[in-house]
């Protein structure tokens, strides 16, 4: 259900950048397919509505997808009129719904990670009480906590990233940063990851200019990132995806910062299609290339990016204008390959910026991601008798 429709240019306040509006029992998602020309929020009443919204790109961005999925189910259980089952049956109900939600988009690890954490929450709750209501309450509170935690994590990513870049020897002046896709408030619960770092750099007065790519074929950069940058009055320039190498050759880019949908244990990173090309160009031109993401985007079960499942989108996104929303622009009958993501090898990545700090390479050029996230316990102090 469409609940509001306004001209975005006339409502550029902080609230306009909320992709998720939630209060217990109620969830609205900003329909990002309509931005930047219209601000329309959709009512999400249950997990089915959440699944469709994620699959159809109403909400996008790995952190936002996970939170929207969790909250759609929280709304569903909050509004259950009757549930006569036991706590064990409530657990089965929730796990089935979570597995269904995970199927909406397979590449972003945040979604499956959130589902796993929520499954553990309800299993623990069922051990403590035989009442289904207790399990549902535990689930709802855990889903709501994810919304709050994401904003805090994003601000920490912004702080770590800005401090790290500021302290680099080459960055004695203001720096210009290029980013790809959308990684801001619209892709998260607030502030953003890669775009959050750009926000922090701007707030500290050390950002010269942000460059955002259009991000074909769905145009998340030209529609969404440009919108956020203009909203925050950050000096910014939109470029065509194919202009990246020329911009770098002209010496106008000091660093690249992108987001991530899944990071393997060796640092290989899946992100929006086109990221790999930008990383290759950055490497050729000697420009540092950073990935910014919460630690929930890291999948230690995958040894490399070769194991990451790459989602393929519908041909219509390429054959029709406006990412599939507009008129047909190609001849009928043409074959289409439309992967949503590509994998950038760790060898092309300078550092991975998380809410816990910045993961840099050791002397042999490898990322010790697992050691960073799960440091070995300190050796116990031996006391002689």
Structural description of this entry:
With 385 residues, the chain is α/β, with parallel strands linked by helices. The chain is built from eleven helices and 15 strands. The chain has helices at residues 47-55, 62-78, 87-102, 109-128, 132-166, 194-203, 220-231, 244-249, 275-284, 316-319, 369-373; strands at 2-7, 20-23, 26-30, 38-43, 175-179, 207-213, 236-239, 255-258, 262-264, 269-272, 289-292, 298-299, 341-344, 351-354, 357-360. It has a seven-stranded mixed beta sheet with strand order 7-6-5-8-11-14-15. Strands 1-4-3-2 form a four-stranded antiparallel beta sheet, with helices on one face. Strands 12-9-10-13 form a four-stranded mixed beta sheet, with helices on one face. The longest helix has 35 residues, at 132-166.
